[in-house]
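yo, DUF1876 domain-containing protein is done. seq:
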Amino acid sequence: MTRPVGNRLPSAKEWRLNLYLSEHDPDTTARIVLDTGDNVLESCAEARRNPYDRDVPEIGDELAAGRALIALGRELVRAAAGDIKAMGAPEATPPTPLWSPRE
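structure:
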């Protein structure tokens, strides 16, 4: 649980995330735009249906969106690492990835 530091009151923030999906059979593309109020981050990813598989658009949507979210998460972590470095903090050893680079 987070507690206020000193006299500083806890604050709530709202970040806006828009997810855009487009399908051009057999490809599905996901584009995510995250507006933090201070910065705007964007990520894109694709999913491609094997021509021998049944056409189930929801699967392409889920794969493309999931991949774009993973890419956005990596971008957020890189941004935080850059901010930490800019503050003069010593570099930490990066954690072991939870997933392989190509998913």
